[in-house]
User: What shape does this take?
Amino acid sequence: MTTRLRVLDDGAWISVNDSREVRVSELWRLDAPDLCECALADLVVENFQSVGVDGSTVEARVYGQCIACGATGTTGWVPIGRVRGGEFAGLDRSAVRRVRR
Amino acid sequence: MPTDVENWKSEVYGNDIRDRLFEFAEEGYDSIPDDERDAWFERFKWWGLYHQRNGQEGYFMMRIGTPNGVLEPGQLRTVGEIADEYARGPGVNPIFGDAYADFTTRQSIQLHWIELSDVPAIFEKLEANGLSTQQACGDSWRNIVGNPVAGKDGQEVIDAWPVIRELNETFKGNDDHANLPRKWKVSVTGSADGSGQGDINDLAFEPAYKAVEGGGDGGDSDGDGDESGDVVGFNVRVGGGLSRNEPRLARDIDVWVPPERVPDVAGGLSALFRDYGDREDRYNARVKFLVDEWGADEVRETLQAEYVDFELETAGRDVREEYTYNTGEGERNDLIGVHDQKDGRNFVGLNVLVGRMGASDVLDLADLAEEYGSGEVRLSQRQNVIVTDVPDAALDDFLDEPLLDHYSPDPSPFMRGSVACTGTEFCSLSIVETKNRQVRFARWLKANVDLPDDVDEFHIHLSGCTASCAQPQIADVSLRGMKTRKDGDPVEALDVGLGGGLGENPQFARWVTQRVPADEVPGAIANLVESFAGERDEGESFRAFVARHDDDELDAFVDPEETDYEDPMMHNTKRTWYPYAENDSMEDAPPTPADD
Ligand code: HEM
Ligand code: SF4
Ligand SMILES: [Zn+2]
Assistant: This one.
């Protein structure tokens, strides 16, 4: 079964199978040494740049700002949830996310 | 690889969308196949319908494009009636009620909570009254903007209204220009005040004089021109826009056109954008990025070589040194108040706080426009309305009307200067709540802050994200949605920029203070104004004051502080289905209207 993954409305959403699942304006805890020097970035998600899948893990690259240090930029691939049997389950908002290397 | 949007557009786009839209409306929202929703919602934008954010499934924002902001007699009433009948949804706004129209920064009108099943009836009513939503959103010619009082303005160099009408007729519904890589925003201004805001549009025509042989193709046939005998036409600029932290001013491509050739040049540039714009990456698609890459010279050369069949003139003598609109200096910074028309009557600009007006007020205003003027009303790019054609003899009675207590021709500077975008109430991209917040800000500032006596305008623009729909970068104080932590908890916050403005030498705001918790912003502005009042040179404008200080000094002036201002929207308003609902959680979201 293929999963339709899309960035919609100029980066406002990740749509999974034509359902709007992940939105901008959340704060994510992010282990992203390429983005800033904070041990954990506190990232305001402003814009989704692209979405993809690695195994069953749905990942996105996001533009945002770390509110702990002020750095802005686009992240590498960050997990946002999983698809199983065509169903999407988003990652918990408080989860610490690690950028795939 | 072409983007999803490009694939969808290549399948069905433009006028062809309409038939399917009407079928879906007929058969109900649920008749849109699940696996085609993303595609259809993207396409519906071309017909002015934008699906609202999540929690509001099945409801649409509808944008009506009113070229140059002109509402002919009767049209405002049509808008008011449609808002009253159809723009009501499950969410009720605590300040504005449950049916209202938004006047926008591009002289359009937005209605919310529109149901798909009502679209055919609304279109029928709009079109019967000469109004349309065609291309109000989506990747093509958007609503054409300009000086809203074109044809009437005493300060006019050339009447741009016939030119705008012709462009509108030529390029709305024109299959050759229906599918562009991205939105295409055009401004045509004929007045010397700069109120068309050409600098921040993809394509701008600005008034300019040119000495052309034999009057140049009959360009002076109506005797226009100045004492030198030069002909009046337009200089052309390309590639302005504010979005995505990449604001650009439109670049001068060294072209002057007589009015009758504007459609050729505008069509040539739109075709150039269609053919050369980036369709692989929507974030790089706006023409501003093409101009970055090519430079103005190459744009001109390509236009000349491939898209027009006559010799382009070089730029003429512009009147930019006379620009006043949104400059933060001098006269006519906006179009509020009573102004002379060419024909001896008056136009009266009324302040609409954050551009939103309840449907019953819209209808009352339509009555007043008929009673005291010609029935015509126009919209400015500062989200305000202008009643035109008011004779001197009717002026006093008009100004005494009770409706004008709310929509004042002489408002407090903080009311007058407020512009706000849609924000988390309806917009998917937003980071913070905007319109109601800006109303609260303006009221608090009016009650608590005194500007120096000689300063009667102070522009504060609030945008919920970097798309910059409220044009924050050209305000005295620019506010942009962000997040921060306060006592460890995430709260809505605003970045603060200062000293932006248009004019002969436009300047974008400098972002001097980041992530101020929203409840500390009024205190920050109060402290800023106090520093300005105390330290300015005699008669100095705020913009000039900002220009002679460095970012650190300005950051110190901003000085965020809690005050008795209270902000009820500090939590993540995007996690609600509607920020102002009593039971606001996503679980309480209303069913899609089709399931009713
Ligand atoms: C649901 C509400 C809205 C959404 C989703 C939306 C979306 C956007 C987006 C994505 C951009 C960035 C454009 C780009 O990257 O090329 C933008 C810019 C802009 N929009 Fe909106 N917008 C909304 C409401 C409005 C309103 C109410 C107005 C007034 C007509 C408006 C006027 C503008 C302006 C002036 C800009 C910035 C200037 C520019 O770059 O062209 N938008 N909007
Ligand atoms: S500036 Fe951002 S939040 Fe405001 S209406 Fe535009 S896209 Fe939405
Ligand atoms: Zn950081």
The CA atoms of residues 93 and 492 of chain B lie 19 Å apart. Chain B touches chain A at residues 4, 34-38, 41-42, 53-54, 244-245, 282-283, 424, 428-432, 465-467, 481-485, 490, 493, 514-515, 572, 574 (CB under 8 Å). Chain B has 18 helices and 20 strands. Confidence is low (pLDDT under 50) at residues 216-223 of chain B.
